[in-house]
Amino acid sequence: MTRTAAGTDDVRHDWTAEEAHVLHDLPLPELVFRAQSVHRRHFDPGEIEAATLLSIKTGGCPEDCGYCSQSAHHRTGVAAGKLMDTEAVLAEARQAKAGGATRFCMGAAWRGPKERDLDQVCAMIEGVRALGLESCATLGMLTPSQARRLGAAGLDYYNHNIDTSPAFYPRIVTTRTLQDRLETLDHVRAADIKVCCGGIVGMGETPADRIEMLVTLARLRPHPESVPLNLWNPIPGTPVMEDAVPVDAIAFVRLVALARLLMPASVVRLSAGRDRLSDEAQALAFLAGANSIFTGDRLLTTGNPAREADAALLARLGLKIAARPAAPIRAEAAP
Ligand code: SAM
Ligand code: DTB
Ligand code: SF4
Predict the structure, then answer these.
(1) N or C, which end of the chain is more exposed by having fewer CB within 10 Å?
(2) Burial per residue of 35-56, b for 16 or more beta-carbon CB atoms within 10 angstroms, e otherwise
(3) Is the pLDDT reported for residue 16 higher than 90?
C-alpha cells in the first residue's frame, strides 16, 4: 500500500478523552471531511490493503474471553482442533495470494504458544514470506524470547488487541488483564515486529468505552501500525450474547473517522462484522479513513463477505486492492 511522503507532524500521543469526544460528536460531514483530509496526507485514498486470515489452531482456548467462539469456557459448538500442518497452511497462503491478498495472518486459540508449537509457526512464517506475502500472527501472550524468535523468523506483524476500554475490560475477560496485553505488545515492539492492535465494539460497552478504547490505542508510543476495528460477531453460547447491543453503521463510521484522526499514519482495518455492513456503509467507512479489509470467505470461525462481492464493491467504488505490501518503513520513529 502506498504511503505518501507526508511527515508525521500530525501524529500525537497525548490525546485526551475530552478531545476525542469533541471530534467524535462533530456533525458527520465535518468529521468525515477532517478524517479524509488527514487520510490523504498519509495514504493513497484510492487503495485498500487486503489481508487474509487463517485459523491455524482452532478452539479449546483456556482464556475466558466472553465474546469468543473458541474459549473452552463457553459452549459454542466450536470443536478444539490441533495445530495445522505447515504444508496445509502454506497451501492456504498460496490461495490467499492468488486471491490478491498481500498479507497472510495466522491465528491460534492459545493463551500463549508452547515452545514446540513456536518452531512450527516459525516455519510457517518463513514459508509465507517466501511466497512474497507479508506475515502476521496472533498467538496470544508472548514472552520476550518468544517475540524475538518470531522476529528472527521474519514475522512482519503481530496482532494482539486491547479489545475494549480499560474500564470495560474486566467485564469481558477475567483470565488476563489489559496490562498483560500491553506487556506482550512491548515484547513485540522490542523484537522489531510491527504491531496490529485494535478492538471490538457491540459487546454491550457504552459509546464512551469505545472512545476510551481508541484513546488508549492512540496513547501508545508509537501507534500500532495496523488498527483492526471489529463489530462483534454474535456467538450463541458466549456470555457477551446476553448483553450485546449492535452498533449502528453510522456510529461505526464515526469510530473509524476518530481512529483515523487519532492515529493518522496507521492502517485502519474493517475487520469482523463487515458482512453486516451495506455497500454504502462500507463506502462511508472508506471515506472516513478505513484502508484495509480482510478478504476471503472466512475470518477465524465466522464469516466474511465473499471474494466476488468484495471485488464487485471495490469496482463500484473505483478502489484498488494495493498491489504491494505496506512499505517496510515505520511511519513513525520509535521513541
Ligand atoms: N488467541 C489470540 C488472542 O486472543 O490474541 C488470537 C486469536 S483472537 C480470536 C483475535 C482477536 O479476534 C481477539 O482479540 C478479538 O479482538 C477478535 N475476536 C474474537 N472473537 C470475535 C468475535 N466474535 N467478533 C469480533 N471479533 C472477535
Ligand atoms: C482482529 O482484530 N480481527 C481478526 C484478527 N484480528 C485475528 C479476528 C476476527 C475474529 C472474528 C471471530 C471469528 O471468526 O472467530
Ligand atoms: Fe482464546 Fe483469543 Fe478467543 Fe480469547 S480471543 S478465547 S485468547 S482465542
Answers:
(1) C
(2) bbebbeebbeeebbbbbbbbbb
(3) yes
